[in-house]
Design brief:
Belongs to the eukaryotic GSH synthase family. This protein is α+β, with helices and mostly antiparallel strands. The chain contains 16 helices and 24 strands.
Length: about 500
C-alpha cells in the first residue's frame, strides 16, 4: 500500500517546520496500483492541457513530453504572497528608471565589460544605438521578480532572488501548475481546498501588454515577431502566448524566427522599419538572446543590432536587458542607491526590505573583504555571473575554487556574491516524464521559489501601464543548487496560501 497519510497540511509543510492543527485531514489510503493510476491520470491531464516540453534527449518538432511537476502545491504565507504581488509595480518602475540612466548602467558594468565578452557585446550594442539615437520611444517590459522565503527572528519573509527582464518564462506554465493541483484536489474530493490556490491570469496579462504595444504602434497591417532559440524546448509556454494573442486579437499575426533567420531574412528600411516576410514588425518579443549560446556568429549579433536600430517596440529593448544584469541588482542594494530612482520613501523602504546581501567583487578593499567572506564560509553564499537561463551559478566549494583561481584578476569583477537564501524545506512528490513510480514514489525534501509577473508600457518617461499580472512557482530538491525547469532540475509548483500562524522553527 502507498499511504497518503497524516494531516493534509502536515504532508505539505513537513520539514518546513510549520505545524498547524490537523483540521485538513486527507483520509485516503491508496493501493499501489491506484496511486500509479492517479499519477498517470495527472500526467495525461497535464500534457493534454498544455503542460508539455520538447525532449532534450529525443528532440522532435512532432512530440512533447510532460512537464515535471509536484503532486502537491507548496505552502506559502498569504501575507508574504500578497506582499510580493503588491510590490511588483514598484519593481517595474525601478527597472524602467534604471534602464534610462546611462551613467548608472555604465558605472555598474564598466569593470564587467573589460573581462566579460558577452556583456561587453551587449553594452557595445547599447552604446551604438544610443549614439545613433533610439528610433523608438515606446518601451515594453514583461518582467518577473523571483523570491524565496528567508527565516528571520519572527518568521519567514520574502527575499528577492533576481529580476528577470528578458525572456521571462512560465507565464503559461505557471497557470498550468495551479490547474494541475486543482485537478488533483478534485480527484481527491478536496473541493474545499480549491480556494487556497490563488487565481492566476499571467498569460492573459502578459499578452495584453504585447497587444497594447501593438496598438500604440498604430499600423493595423503590422505583426508581432517572437525571437526564439534554434530548438525551443519550452515550446508550450511560448506557443500559448501566440494562441492567447490570437484569442484576444484575432486579426493580429505572429511570426516566430530565431536570430540566424532574422540575419538572413529580415531587412531594415530607410525609415528604420523592421521588415520580416514582407510585413512591418510592430513588436519584437525576445524569448532568446539572453545567453552566448544564442549568438553562434557575428550574424546573430548583426540581427540583434538590426532589431535594436529599428522602430519596432522591443520587449525588452537593450536598455531593459542590461538593467536586469546581476551587477545592476548588486549596485541597487548599496546604501542610498535605490533612492536615486524611487523617491517615494515607503516604496523604497518596502523594496529594500526584500533585498538580501549582495556584494561586488571588484579589485578594491570592499571586493577583497567580500572575497575573504566567501573563502572563509562559501556555504553561506552564491556566486553569480552576468548570465540568464539557469545553470550558471556556483555554490559551496566551487565558489572557493573559482575565487582562488581569479583572486588577483579582473575576471572576478564579472561576478557578484550574494547571501544564500535558506527557504523553508517542505516535502512533496516530484512527478517527472519517463519516471518509474514503483521505484521512486517517496516524499522528497524540496524548496520553492515564487515568481511574480509584471508589465510596464512607457512612452519615454511617461508610464502608460504598470501592473502586476500573475505568478509562477517552481521547486527543486534540497540537494540541487539550480532550480530551472527548462534547465532540468526544477519542477512546476503552485502556492497553497495559508494565513499567518505561529511557527515552530527547527
Amino acid at each position: 500500500m502507498v499511504h497518503i497519510k497524516d494531516s493534509y497540511l502536515n504532508i505539505l509543510v513537513c520539514k518546513m517546520a510549520v505545524y498547524l492543527n490537523p483540521c485538513l485531514s486527507l483520509p485516503i489510503n491508496l493501493a499501489e496500483n491506484e496511486f500509479e493510476d492517479l499519477i498517470q491520470k495527472l500526467k495525461d491531464w497535464t500534457i493534454m492541457h498544455g503542460g508539455g516540453m520538447r525532449s532534450k534527449k529525443q528532440y522532435s518538432n512532432d512530440s512533447l513530453t510532460v512537464v515535471p511537476f509536484t503532486l502537491l502545491p507548496s505552502v506559502f504565507p498569504r501575507s508574504e504572497f500578497q506582499k510580493a504581488v503588491s510590490i511588483q509595480p514598484a519593481l517595474n518602475e525601478l527597472t524602467h528608471y534604471v534602464s534610462n540612466d546611462h551613467a548608472f548602467l555604465y558605472s555598474c558594468l564598466e569593470k564587467t565589460i573589460e573581462v566579460d565578452e558577452f556583456t561587453r557585446n551587449l553594452f557595445n550594442l547599447y552604446e551604438t544605438v544610443r549614439s545613433e539615437g533610439f528610433a523608438q520611444r515606446i518601451s515594453l517590459g514583461m518582467l518577473r521578480s523571483d523570491f524565496m522565503q528567508e527565516k528571520e527572528a519572527s518568521g519567514y519573509y520574502i527575499k528577492q532572488v533576481e529580476m528577470n527582464t528578458i525572456a521571462s518564462g512560465f507565464g503559461w506554465l505557471g497557470i498550468v501548475s495551479g490547474d494541475i493541483h486543482r485537478f488533483f484536489f478534485q480527484q481527491m474530493g478536496l473541493l474545499d481546498k480549491l480556494k487556497m490556490l490563488p487565481e492566476n491570469k499571467a498569460l492573459q496579462g502578459l499578452c495584453s501588454g504585447i497587444i497594447k504595444a501593438w496598438e500604440l504602434f498604430n499600423d493595423k497591417d503590422s505583426v508581432i515577431l517572437i525571437i526564439i532559440e534554434n530548438q525551443s524546448m519550452n515550446v508550450c509556454d511560448q506557443r500559448f502566448h501566440e494562441f492567447e494573442i490570437a484569442r484576444q486579437k484575432p486579426e493580429l499575426n505572429v511570426i516566430r524566427k530565431n536570430l540566424t533567420q532574422i540575419a538572413n531574412e529580415a531587412k531594415l528600411s530607410d525609415t528604420k522599419d523592421l521588415i520580416v516576410q514582407g510585413k512591418k514588425v510592430a513588436v519584437v518579443y525576445f524569448r532568446a538572446g539572453y545567453t552566448p549560446d544564442h549568438y553562434h556568429s557575428e550574424a546573430e549579433w548583426s540581427a540583434r543590432l538590426m532589431i535594436e536600430r529599428s522602430k519596432a517596440i522591443k520587449c525588452p529593448n537593450i536598455q531593459y536587458h542590461l538593467a536586469g544584469t546581476k551587477k545592476v541588482q548588486q549596485a541597487l542594494a548599496t546604501p542610498g542607491m535605490l533612492e536615486r530612482f524611487i523617491k517615494d520613501t515607503k516604496k523604497s523602504t518596502d523594496i529594500r526590505k526584500m533585498f538580501t546581501g549582495l556584494y561586488a567583487l571588484d579589485l578594491n578593499e570592499d571586493g577583497d573583504k567580500a572575497v575573504k567572506m566567501a573563502l572563509d564560509c562559501p556555504e553561506r553564499f552564491v556566486l553569480k555571473p552576468q548570465r540568464e537561463g539557469g545553470g550558471n551559478n556556483l555554490y559551496g566549494e566551487d565558489i572557493r575554487h573559482k575565487l582562488t583561481s581569479c583572486m588577483n584578476s579582473k575576471e572576478r569583477s564579472a561576478w557578484i556574491l550574494m547571501d544564500k537564501i535558506n527557504p523553508p524545506v517542505q516535502q512533496n512528490y516530484l512527478i517527472r516524464p519517463n519516471q518509474d513510480f514503483k521505484k521512486n514514489s517517496s516524499l522528497c525534501d524540496v524548496v520553492s521559489e515564487l515568481g511574480i509577473f509584471g508589465i510596464i508600457l512607457c512612452d519615454g518617461d511617461n508610464i502608460l501601464i504598470n501592473e502586476q499580472v500573475g505568478h509562477m512557482m517552481r521547486s527543486k530538491l534540497t540537494s540541487c543548487n539550480e532550480g530551472g525547469v527548462h534547465a532540468g532540475d526544477g519542477v512546476l509548483d503552485s502556492p497553497f496560501l495559508i494565513d499567518d500562524c505561529p511557527m515552530k522553527i527547527k
